[in-house]
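# nightly structure sweep
# worker-07 picked up a monomer target from the shared queue
# config: single-sequence mode, recycle default, output format = structure tokens
# input follows
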Amino acid sequence: MKRNIFLTLTLSCCLLIACTTDANMPESPKNYVSFFPSEAPARASDTKFENGDQIGVYAMKDNGNVTAGQIGYTNYANNMPYQYIENSKFTPMGNGIELPSDGSKLYYYAIYPYSTLSSSNFTFEVWTDQTAYNHYTTSDLMIAYTTSSSDKENINLSFSHCLSKVIISPKNFNAVYSFTLKDMYYKANVNLNYKTFTNTGNKATIKMCSNGTNSFKAIVPPQTITDGMMFGYMECNEGNYNITASGNIELQAGKQTEIIVYANESRGQKHFFAIQKP
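# output follows
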């Protein structure tokens, strides 16, 4: 009788141990790579990245055949979504990038804003209505890539702007309510490996974001506003006016261009022009 009880207790203990060491053991948390952006140059917000901003990250194994700043054909990780948190770093939105188990080092390439359409060569669209602040900031295409491979879990990224930032500054007007850019390219053909960002497709009107009192801003693909082109429409307390370029205005990739709008009175009539600020 005693022997039977002992055997039963022994079997129960074995079953308990098997249960706790297999199915019910908590899974160890994975260590994903995190990314820390430098503060300069800032993103389109003119200050820094903000909580909730999203990037897509590519990772390439350093096997001797990968060039820094190049996205390969067979990547270790493709366009993994990361989100900015705690005013400090980008962490994965779900599964992230783990360091290779074979000890290989990785190169990284990051794109802001995150898009499922991103690849080494894709078409990017700015918002045609940038009056909403988040539409303005998510029009600011930015890239960052590492120049050396790493086996660390914390990676620093230095982002750079790819498109053109336009600031409109009307002079000697009491109150300007809005400014719209007319006949502007709003799509850019992006080649990340060649670092080229060129306008493409049709043109559209682009409603600009407020930049303070009597000032407006927008992000557009690189393009030229040609001399004599009626490129803007301004609404102010004096009335609504079309704006014509006086001389060519070059909007270059990665550059900020300020355009001065002024009135010129001739034969009792006002004509409104714009010039590129030196």
